[in-house]
């Protein structure tokens, strides 16, 4: 007994004070969690809730911007929880990939919150939307910034619980139906993830990502790492809606109200993509190379189901679900290629897709509201009534199809080039074909819903609301801006790819002394 | 439930269990126990009371909406994490203060505040579910 009390634990504790830069790493997740608790307590004051949520998300964008500046200046930043050094304690590590994703997520959430605030005025009293939005953002930010794989699982759970709540908000039967499909499939995926983490811990004896990277070379000969990576691939592929485990997405995403659907389309699948990038590119690169044919096949199938599915739908919201899937396929194609072109392109495409899919869902939500229907058979005459809005939608459609000069073009160009460089002409062909299918699908939407004159019997097209258009313009500006001036983002994404592929800086940030104990 | 025996025993049982839940909560720092288990015991206590005297009685007794209690717990736990900022140490580092009450030293910590938050989250969230179920069954 006496001996146990004199163990010197100071070697396992971080020395020195925590700097402001380190606090920036935990602040996004922690402040969202705190604010969501406050918002639940204020459930009787919807106006105040709204105001605090908008302010809180603006703060989140600011924090992520500051963190990005810090990471660009000094490389990855780490903070350890409770002073316990890794591998004992949980580390939060922000590298360029994580910060870029977190920043894009924060921007998207901010815009969705603004748009929902406008929606709210017509629908009356508040419900659990804002607290759950903030909780979702806590989960998403935590997932992007954590440096511990079990902690990643925990943040997945947090965002999953919040998303269950968000998708079930509202009285419609179809929503419960969509929520159930979403919930069951995602629970299965999360359980698979947990099993994979369990095996990982049994093999490595550590859950810290940097520690895993350092221990992997010694264990590569004996441990079943390819199996493990394949298990992660399945779990995260399910989250990201990769073929053949993608059927939950079109079944669920058209049921909630536009703001929620926009948020989901922007964020949730991308968290799966991020986790996939982190695990396969940073933790297990040789295993990723072995799985390349599998990932490439999945990517092609996902892109084609997305493109064909989009073409087959008559409900525009259902169609967008397939557009999300086609985008995921493109990102997976990048993942299967590897290297600066592949991974950089995948990352760029994921960032673009976050902003674009949210904008598309918001735009289509507004189009359906003013047109009185989401069915292509019933819609018509939107161009005649709102030419400017139709133009805006057309820009977003082009961006989603990967046409220049919008932000969808550059990552696709990067990926096609990377595919042709390694001689994977069929992968490049699939990417171009899926882009072509999406172009036709969007052309059909534009022709039928916007260009075609309204039917005699159709209800008159309503006026647009600035509350919906304002936030939409913000996102569209990003899509057009990064389409016209992609150099900055291209360079940043390539830097991010280098730190992900060759994580010396990441390791140095987690273990400043160089070696693990 | 309309059993006189149950109705007579329930208040005693409830108060005893609530006291025990606090004991388990405070014991948790160095021994088995803690906020989660303590919270479960407290919810069981209130559920018994609800079964005996009706859900409305419980709702009146806890004053606040169960979800507000859970949110307050989450708030306390977050505050316990942020308290480290004032001391200049990383997030969630335990901070200790020793207070002398009536001649005996009482050690208070941010860890305890965190655990209290967990206790309230469990009480609030589970109570919301339990009360909704009891209401539906009409017990």
UniProtKB/TrEMBL annotation, chain A:
Name under which the protein is recorded: Na+/H+ antiporter subunit D
Keywords from the named record: Cell membrane, Membrane, Transmembrane, Transmembrane helix
GO CC list: plasma membrane
Annotated GO MF terms: NADH dehydrogenase (ubiquinone) activity
InterPro entries found in the cross-reference section: CPA3_Na-H_Antiporter_D, NADH_UbQ_OxRdtase, ND/Mrp_TM
Main location: membrane
The keyword Cell membrane appears for this protein: yes
Topological type in the membrane: Multi-pass membrane protein
Family assignment from sequence similarity: Belongs to the CPA3 antiporters (TC 2.A.63) subunit D family.
Subcellular location: Cell membrane; Membrane
GO annotation, biological process: ATP synthesis coupled electron transport
Database matches in PANTHER family: NA(+)_H(+) ANTIPORTER SUBUNIT D1 (PTHR42703:SF1), NADH DEHYDROGENASE (PTHR42703)
NCBIfam families according to UniProt: PRK12663.1
Ranges of residues in domain NADH:quinone oxidoreductase/Mrp antiporter transmembrane: 148-435
Membrane-spanning intervals of the chain: 20-43, 50-68, 88-117, 129-146, 152-170, 182-204, 224-249, 261-281, 293-312, 319-337, 343-364, 376-403, 423-451, 463-485
From TrEMBL, chain B:
Organism domain of life: Bacteria
Cited InterPro entries: CPA3_antiporter_subunitB, MnhB
Keywords, comma-separated and alphabetical: Cell membrane, Membrane, Transmembrane, Transmembrane helix
Membrane topology qualifier: Multi-pass membrane protein
Gene Ontology CC terms: plasma membrane
Residues passing through the membrane, by range: 12-29, 35-55, 67-91, 111-133
Keyword Ion transport: no
Annotated localization: Cell membrane
Residues annotated as domain Na+/H+ antiporter MnhB subunit-related protein: 5-127
Family: Belongs to the CPA3 antiporters (TC 2.A.63) subunit B family.
Name of the protein described by the UniProt record: Na(+)/H(+) antiporter subunit B
Taxonomic lineage of the native organism: Bacteria, Pseudomonadati, Pseudomonadota, Alphaproteobacteria, Hyphomicrobiales
């Amino acid at each position: 007994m006496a001996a146990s009390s004199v163990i010197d634990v100071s070697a396992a504790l971080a020395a020195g004070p925590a700097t402001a830069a380190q606090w920036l790493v935990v602040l996004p997740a922690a402040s969202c969690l705190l604010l969501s608790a406050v918002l639940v307590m204020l459930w009787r004051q919807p106006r105040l809730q709204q105001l605090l949520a908008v302010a809180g998300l603006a703060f989140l964008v600011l924090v992520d911007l500051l963190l990005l500046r810090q990471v660009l200046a000094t490389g990855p930043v780490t903070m350890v929880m409770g002073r316990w050094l890794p591998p004992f304690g949980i580390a939060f590590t922000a590298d360029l990939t994580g910060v870029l994703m977190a920043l894009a997520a924060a921007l998207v959430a901010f815009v969705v919150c603004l748009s929902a605030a406008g929606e709210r005025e017509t629908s009356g009293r508040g419900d659990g939307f804002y607290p759950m939005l903030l909780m979702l953002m806590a989960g998403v930010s935590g997932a992007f910034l954590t440096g511990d794989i079990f902690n990643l699982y925990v943040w997945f759970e947090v965002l999953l619980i919040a998303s269950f709540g968000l998708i079930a908000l509202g009285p419609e039967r179809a929503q419960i139906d969509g929520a159930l499909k979403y919930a069951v499939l995602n629970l299965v995926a999360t359980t698979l993830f947990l099993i994979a983490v369990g095996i990982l811990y049994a093999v490595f004896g550590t859950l810290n990502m940097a520690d895993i990277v350092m221990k992997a070379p010694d264990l590569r000969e004996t441990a079943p790492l390819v199996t493990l990576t394949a298990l992660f691939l399945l779990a995260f592929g399910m989250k990201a809606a990769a073929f053949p485990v993608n059927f939950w997405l079109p079944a669920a995403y058209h049921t909630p109200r536009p703001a929620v659907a926009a948020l989901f389309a922007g964020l949730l699948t991308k968290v799966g993509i991020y986790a996939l990038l982190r695990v396969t590119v940073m933790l297990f690169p040789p295993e990723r190379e072995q799985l390349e044919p599998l990932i490439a096949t999945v990517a092609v199938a996902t892109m084609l189901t997305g493109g064909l599915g989009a073409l087959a739908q008559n409900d525009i919201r259902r169609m967008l679900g397939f557009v999300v899937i086609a985008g995921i396929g493109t990102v997976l194609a990048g993942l299967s290629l590897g290297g600066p072109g592949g991974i950089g392109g995948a990352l760029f495409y994921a960032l673009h897709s976050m902003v674009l899919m949210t904008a598309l869902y918001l735009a289509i939500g507004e189009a359906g509201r003013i047109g009185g229907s989401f069915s292509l058979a019933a819609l018509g005459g939107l161009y005649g009534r709102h030419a400017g809005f139709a133009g805006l939608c057309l820009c977003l459609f082009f961006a989603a199809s990967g046409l220049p000069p919008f932000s969808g073009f550059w990552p696709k160009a990067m990926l096609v080039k990377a595919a042709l460089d390694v001689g994977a002409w069929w992968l490049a062909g699939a990417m171009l074909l899926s882009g072509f299918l999406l172009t036709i699908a969007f052309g059909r939407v534009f022709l039928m819903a916007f260009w075609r004159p309204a039917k005699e019997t159709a209800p008159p097209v309503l006026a647009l609301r600035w509350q919906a258009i304002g936030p939409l313009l913000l996102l569209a500006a990003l899509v057009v801006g990064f389409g016209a001036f992609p150099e900055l983002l291209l360079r940043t994404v390539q830097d991010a790819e280098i730190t992900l592929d060759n994580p010396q800086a990441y390791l140095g940030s987690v273990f400043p002394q160089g070696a693990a104990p | 439930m309309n059993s006189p025996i149950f109705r007579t025993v329930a208040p005693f049982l409830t108060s005893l269990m609530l006291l025990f839940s606090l004991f388990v909560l405070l014991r948790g720092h160095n021994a088995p126990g803690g906020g989660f288990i303590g919270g479960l015991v407290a919810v069981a206590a209130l559920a018994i009371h609800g079964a005996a005297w009706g859900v409305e009685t419980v709702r009146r007794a806890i004053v606040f909406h169960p979800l507000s209690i859970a949110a307050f717990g989450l708030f306390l736990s977050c505050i316990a994490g942020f308290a480290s900022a004032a001391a200049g140490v990383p997030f969630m580092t335990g901070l200790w203060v020793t207070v002398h009450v009536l001649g005996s030293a009482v050690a208070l910590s941010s860890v305890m505040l965190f655990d209290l938050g967990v206790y309230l989250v469990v009480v609030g969230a589970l109570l919301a579910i339990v009360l909704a179920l009891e209401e539906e069954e009409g017990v």
